[in-house]
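Box 3.1 A note on notation
Throughout this textbook, protein chains are presented in two layers. The first layer is the amino acid sequence; the second is a token string describing backbone geometry. Keep the layers aligned when reading.
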Amino acid sequence: MSTPYDPASDIPASAAAIAADPVGAQWGLLFLIVAGVFGAIASLVVGAAIRRGAPHLGAVATALTFVGFCVAAYPGPVAAVAAAPAVGLVGDDLLTFIGGIDGQVQGSVINVLFVTLPAGILLLGIAALVASRRHAYLLWAAIVLVAAIPLVMLGGFIAGWALAIGWVVVAVGFGAGGWQYATGTPAAARRHAG
């Protein structure tokens, strides 16, 4: 699933692409909302696994990631831009409209809070590394979480497909964390080995 615009585009180009394909934008929004909700839930599970070995850092990272995914599920300006052509907003009027949305208090708060998602996931990865040193988290899974956000950030500057690869790495890291939470790994593996 991808948005109808390239994430590396500037605001006018993105707005024009969204306005030209409102159905694609609506599907993209639905995908982002669902991904945000599932990501928020997954962050709690992964955070619980990490907190077994890094309780304080893991708690802060979990809170930041949870807030970040909740913010990512907020449809905001993309939803408004997708609906704008239906009410006759195009061209410069559309850009003025976007500027008005970004200038509102909730838009500013959302823009600031959006930083919590990459910061939270990166901090989860660091907390996972700490937990792995205490034999409470698998090292390879911690490395995947740490590597995920740089890949997402880099992908955002390249193209949608590169961004998708970064988010697949995030999903692998979260899947590994969920598996560790459910199975008690690596603690369970140590018990069987001993």
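Confidence is low (pLDDT under 50) at residues 1-5, 188-194. The longest helix spans residues 22-51.
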